Target: Transglutaminase
Amino acid sequence: MERVVSCDLTFDVGEPADVALHIAAANGRVVRAERLDVTIDRRVLPAAIELATPHGGRLHLLRTPPGILSVSYRAELAAPPATAGQPAAAIRGGLPGLPGLEQLTYLRASRYCPSDHDVGFAVAEFGGLPPGRPQVEAITQWIHSRVGYVPGSTNVHSSADDALLTGQGVCRDFAHLGITLCRALQIPARFVAVYAPGLTPMDFHAVFEAWFDGAWWTYDATCRAPREGMVRIATGRDAADTAFVNVLRGIVALQSTEVTATVTGLLPIDDNLAPHRLC
Amino acid sequence: MERVVSCDLTFDVGEPADVALHIAAANGRVVRAERLDVTIDRRVLPAAIELATPHGGRLHLLRTPPGILSVSYRAELAAPPATAGQPAAAIRGGLPGLPGLEQLTYLRASRYCPSDHDVGFAVAEFGGLPPGRPQVEAITQWIHSRVGYVPGSTNVHSSADDALLTGQGVCRDFAHLGITLCRALQIPARFVAVYAPGLTPMDFHAVFEAWFDGAWWTYDATCRAPREGMVRIATGRDAADTAFVNVLRGIVALQSTEVTATVTGLLPIDDNLAPHRLC
Amino acid sequence: MERVVSCDLTFDVGEPADVALHIAAANGRVVRAERLDVTIDRRVLPAAIELATPHGGRLHLLRTPPGILSVSYRAELAAPPATAGQPAAAIRGGLPGLPGLEQLTYLRASRYCPSDHDVGFAVAEFGGLPPGRPQVEAITQWIHSRVGYVPGSTNVHSSADDALLTGQGVCRDFAHLGITLCRALQIPARFVAVYAPGLTPMDFHAVFEAWFDGAWWTYDATCRAPREGMVRIATGRDAADTAFVNVLRGIVALQSTEVTATVTGLLPIDDNLAPHRLC
Amino acid sequence: MERVVSCDLTFDVGEPADVALHIAAANGRVVRAERLDVTIDRRVLPAAIELATPHGGRLHLLRTPPGILSVSYRAELAAPPATAGQPAAAIRGGLPGLPGLEQLTYLRASRYCPSDHDVGFAVAEFGGLPPGRPQVEAITQWIHSRVGYVPGSTNVHSSADDALLTGQGVCRDFAHLGITLCRALQIPARFVAVYAPGLTPMDFHAVFEAWFDGAWWTYDATCRAPREGMVRIATGRDAADTAFVNVLRGIVALQSTEVTATVTGLLPIDDNLAPHRLC
Model:
């Protein structure tokens, strides 16, 4: 199964600006073809600087004069090399099960995942289950059954607490809530922005990864696209780390976004709870 | 069963001040004896102005010069007159079940009871039960089993959301959470500050009342004192309406609080869920 | 100057429902003509029950079967009777300046006006000014200069804190912020829903009233319509008390709202800070 | 000037537990002597695992059986090697002023620093100043003059918004507010936990660093200890990254904390605004 993903973004740039884009597929797959084209008022803008972000992510920095900024990204991706995607072996000497810095980082409360605030709720609701996979699966099912997918119900300031209490949200809120409840149970969890073949309506999507049994496992409480088809873009603590665009300087208004994501052949079927690892 | 309640408050008044006290037993019982003594630097302060607050409450306004302000209140109270405490009959003509203004008021979100924010959670957790008493009882049990009574875990700014998510609080938080979940289910609910014989450690206490079947029914999710022994002080939307002291002007620091509340004979036994109406 | 106001609301009622409407002009003006017409699927619905709300407000309760509910309200209003609108004289005996229960109520923190949380900010920013009118005027100017009127920037859960920190909001947020800062300075303040001739685009509008010098004075930090032309609808602690519609039972979806408000002759000019009392 | 710092912590461990300690001085100084002693019920606990955290930080992981856990850390530190502490030279090729990943990370909103929420306020209050150092200095002065240092006024869930609005906080709140306002103005900013000779009462302390002119500059809006004497412990987005202890597994209660920090000779004098770089 191969994947073709793309996004086309248009911005109105009002004064000289610096922009960070987090739209490219993360490293880890075989790249058959890939293009990132950027123009300002239809003239080519010199190449962006690429920065490596966690878990293979690639962030592109642009410096642009005023005008209409068009960004077009397209990639054709094959399955990852055979060696990728294996669970990390005992990566820390000495004491089995002690977390590394990566796991510690993703245990901590973050902007949209105030896990320190929700320990009581999480322990009361899920603390009686065996740690690790059973808790993460129960969290995913609980969110799916309790939170409605309602576009416009939340905004850029909304946290997991809002999703839990209002019972509404969009994909980022579902992911934030999953992360928050995991961390509140001492399970490292992180946010993943993805291209998601099969998503309707098509857009950027978000899922979460939880750490247990020595690996990061991917869950999508929205159940709106099969995990097997997804292509990782950015990985971080929450949406603050993974926004597809950040304006660092100047006045820039997003005017349009168009995302596509397809697979060759039939879309995989996903039971939404079977263990899955996103490469 | 008679009740004797008292409170002794001491304040340090730094400049001429106006203070509102909400400490007297509400009207509705036979008063055997009652005293409110106020001194400033051990000299008697002229009589306070008494204002009537909802449901028989009595608020006392003081104007005081600087000094050490001592407030001493004591009341001996017998059972209410025989006619009190009956369910309000059909108080509204025409359409049975339509709320009056009192019920409408206590359906609305308030400072510490953001019921608008919690509709999704309340409906998902309790919406499947029959409306009215079954929902209120389920809410009370849920709070009792899920929230720990932890002095110091919350502060004067904490809302019902904090109690729900952190799983901790004190009596006002338990009452706020009960009120919030009721209102989110369209059940009018309100906050009651009480003297509570049997409470340990003794202090001012708070419970909530929910409206169904044509009357206000009292619930105490803390289960820390029998409802039958309680003496109503102030009734309102939440703790903002019922604080035992409010400083309206000047600089006033509370230095000490001592509350007592006893009943003659044995303390009643309370199963915590049987319907109870506080007079 | 006469005023003509109207609103036409359409709802989709999915099951038998009870609805509360707060759309009629409050008492206090000479009523030349007034109609409230309610139909369900184009058949007349029996008369609503009218409840009196604070400061002359009038709330209408409807019980309706499923269908398309149409509500049409229209009123022609002349200046208030000559005796109306005078400052309340010394309404409390004994101690001048001590608040009555009305003023105490509007000193308290409410759902969207968490004044207890903002005392530090309010005192630091405005506490150096003389109490009363100078503080209220400074608050109004500060909000006007600091908060942008941005439709869609807030939602029904947003509080005054959101307006203060994000620097954005709509009329209800401006009013909530004015109320919050006043209360934090011990100035009673309340929310008023109004018809506002001259508002663009036309809609329901909201302003706030602050109590000083023995009267309630009206301020509109949005400066989007002259206060003299406004017609009071509902008065309360904040938007929770004054919503133009509340669904008390059943499933009801608002489908359309159309508001008009005009004055005879020229629209008055408003300097936005001169003392004004809304009748 | 040499520094001697220490901390002694005692915990009650109720069941087998994993604990992370962030108490050791960060790398960057000449270490004259350093000890970390850990005992459980007075028996030596095998050596902790040390993990490197950002900016030289060192985190120690312990696995402990139940009992009384005693942690004792002590270090004597001299000035950093001559080559340390120089501003990072042009670390990024190509486009001057474009941030690196480190700067991007510290531009993002975090748990206690919701900078996305406060852009409006920050821009209105400080946006008229020249970017960089003038803004950071104005922020520091504003916080110092507007926020009172009040132990107990906030708790572990409090954010910068609470400090801004209540006008109260402790050192972590001061740092969170400085960070939040900087990030809202597009200035990278981060949290630093330190030993602070001269602090009264002695305890762990927190300051913030802002990025401008190609380096991280240290500010302390509390003005409670001279920056020159401080010893960096942990660096991160906010207090979530830098807690001196985190319990990763098991039940662990902190029983006592004792911190010391001294310098040889006189304590430096700090004008609190002069540029300072903490090594």
Q: What stands out?
A: Chain B has two domains: 3-80+247-258, 101-240. Chain B touches chain D through four residues (CB under 8 Å).
